[in-house]
Amino acid sequence: MNDDVEKILVSEQELSSIAHRLGEQITRDFEGKRLLVVGVLKGSIYFLTDLSRYIDLPCKLDFIQASSYYDGTESTGEIMIVKDIQEKDLSEFDVLLVEDILDTGNTLKYIKDMLEKRKPRSISIVTLLDKPARRVAEVSADYVGVDVPNEFVVGYGLDYNQYYRNLPYIGVLRREVYEGK
Ligand code: IMP
Ligand code: MG
After folding, report:
1. C-alpha to C-alpha distance for 158 and 34, rounded to whole angstroms
2. Nearest-ligand number for the alpha carbon of 151
3. Were 125 and a residue from 113, 141, 163, 171 both cysteine, which residue would form a disulfide, CB within 3.0 to 4.6 Å?
């Protein structure tokens, strides 16, 4: 285990079974629909690649990137779109937003409202991790991998200061790494 990680919250095996379970559920729920799977960069990339291989439907994949201003490990709630998806008219699609973690919800609320204006048939949200205790914005996920406590986590796409994304598990980052520097 990485020395900066205090404990493993979600193991490699658990991550794999989450992708499997949610992929199969999404396959059943979206049968016969035109699915546009949109990964929220950068945190969702590992989850999206695992999850999408269990979605047994014709679908397009795209990415969107929002940037929220950070004050240490806390988002300020101010958001802007850094990279948009290719499709401007979404009227033929059921959109599935793929997120790494739903924290305050500010980022996903912003993205969802923006895409809503392009009139998709529907927008659903799948998030690997949910921190419901931290929710501020009015947004919730349709599919959740697992709820996590209010601790700062890294790995499997999630970063601190752009590091730790490549850890194969989700772990709690030691406080000393980001506090009292
Ligand atoms: P929100 O807008 O507060 O919901 O935050 C969304 C983004 O903040 C997530 O997509 C993550 O990229 C990041 N984030 C929130 N909590 C954590 C965490 O515990 N570890 C790493 N990134 C996090
Ligand atoms: Mg993210």
Report:
1. 29
2. 1
3. 141
What is the residue-level pLDDT of the chain in tens, covering all 181 positions? Answer: 899 999 999 999 999 999 999 999 999 999 999 999 999 999 999 999 999 999 999 999 999 999 877 666 676 768 899 999 999 999 999 999 999 999 999 999 999 999 999 999 999 999 999 999 999 999 999 999 999 999 999 999 999 999 999 999 999 999 999 986 5
**Which of 67, 76, 100 is the pocket-test mutation for ligand 1 (most atoms within 8 Å of CB)?**
100
Ligand 1 contact via 106 beta carbon (within 6 Å) = yes
State the catalytic residues. 103
Residue 56: C-alpha distances to residues 4, 8, 12 (Å): 37, 30, 22
Q: What is the pTM of this model?
A: 0.94
Closest CA to 77 of 99, 40, 110: 110
List the end-to-end C-alpha distance of the chain, in Å, as a whole number. Answer: 23
Contacts of 138 (CB under 8 A, 6+ apart): 105, 109
> Packing angle between helix 45-52 and helix 12-29, nearest 10 degrees?
60
Q: Whose CA is nearest to atom 5 of ligand 1?
A: 103
